């Protein structure tokens, strides 16, 4: 299956390069990164994308969603989930050099863990990394303050990064989504208006999760691929993996895979405004 996907992406990229397929003239897409295990490849990915897309700041993204700024180019917003230490190096050494501002979504519990074995246990059990590298580490409050100084934004990503889909206790869901975000806001002394679902696909999102998140946040980010040209509050994102190459990137961002996720996007948008 992996090889088949790579072949399809190579073919799509070839068709784009020979101008049989065209990139959209206007688009608004959001990139989703996690732990950056290969800084050189990450730098290559971003450098490649800057050739045909324009990176925008979180503020510019908000202005587009609220109708204050028009979409007249192919725009990209970068986001990072889970709060890995590698994100600090990315912010300080790569994004700073390229003048790119991003949103970093952090689960509060992971942020506060200090003991090494507890960190690795969280990475394996909560973040669902099957084989954690012993070098993996978490961002701490001091790191986040550095990231904020660099003019990036911080977003909420639940308290403990557990799968909330099947949890029926409203107090637990509210704490994971709302209360933990309020705590993070107090610790950092900033306003937090962004939230990303952990895991983020439709199968991982319940009506209760939608209900609580829309009560608290201005923008809610998923892990479902798609355009955001007409989105106001629910945001779709393209997951980018450390090994993704130029063929993968152009296939994702040209929108050629979007039809595979159309039912998820439609269902989520339909359910968003339903009351419990």
Which sequence of SSEs, written as H and E, runs from N to C? Answer: HEHEHEHEHHHEHEHEEEHH
Helix content: 40-55%
The parts where pLDDT drops under 50 for at least 5 residues are: none
Please summarize the sheet with the most strands.
6 strands, parallel
* Terminal CA distance: 39 Å
The gross shape turns out to be globular
Number of strands: 9
Structural class: alpha/beta
Mean pLDDT score: 95
Strand content: 5-15%
**Helical segment count:** 11
If you compute it from the alpha carbons, what radius of gyration comes out, rounded to the nearest whole angstrom?
A: 18 Å
| Oligomer class | single chain
Structure characterization notes:
The chain is α/β, with parallel strands linked by helices and 276 residues long. It is built from eleven helices and nine strands. The strands form two sheets. Strands 1, 2, 3, 4, 5 and 9 form a six-stranded parallel sheet that branches. Strands 6-7-8 form a three-stranded parallel sheet. Helix 4 links the parallel strand 3 (74-81) and strand 4. The longest helix is centred in the middle third of the chain and has 19 residues, at 170-188. It is globular. 38% of the residues are buried. The mean pLDDT is 95.
């Amino acid at each position: 299956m992996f090889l088949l996907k790579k072949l399809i992406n190579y073919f799509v990229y070839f068709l784009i390069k020979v101008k049989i397929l065209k990139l959209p003239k206007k688009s608004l897409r959001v990139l989703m990164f996690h732990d950056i295990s290969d800084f050189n490849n990450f730098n290559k990915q971003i450098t490649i994308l800057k050739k045909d897309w324009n990176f925008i700041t979180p503020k510019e993204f908000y202005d587009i969603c609220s109708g204050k700024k028009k979409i007249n180019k192919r725009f990209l917003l970068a986001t990072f989930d889970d709060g890995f230490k590698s994100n600090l190096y990315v912010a300080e050494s790569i994004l700073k050099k390229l003048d790119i501002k991003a949103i970093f979504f952090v689960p509060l519990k992971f942020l506060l863990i200090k003991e090494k074995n507890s960190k690795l246990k969280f990475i394996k059990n909560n973040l669902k990394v099957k084989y954690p590298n012993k070098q993996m580490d978490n961002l701490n409050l001091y790191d986040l303050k550095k990231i904020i100084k660099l003019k990036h934004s911080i977003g909420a990503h639940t308290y403990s990064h557990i799968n909330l889909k099947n949890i029926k206790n409203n107090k637990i869901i509210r704490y994971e989504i709302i209360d933990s975000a309020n705590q993070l806001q107090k610790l950092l002394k900033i306003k937090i208006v962004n939230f990303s679902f952990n895991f983020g696909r439709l199968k991982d999102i319940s009506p209760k999760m939608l209900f609580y998140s829309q009560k608290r946040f201005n923008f809610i980010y998923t892990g479902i691929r798609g355009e955001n040209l007409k989105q106001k509050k629910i945001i779709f994102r393209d997951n980018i993996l450390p090994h993704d190459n130029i063929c993968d990137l152009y296939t994702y961002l040209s929108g050629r895979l979007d039809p595979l996720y159309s039912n998820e996007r439609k269902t989520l948008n339909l359910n968003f405004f339903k009351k419990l």
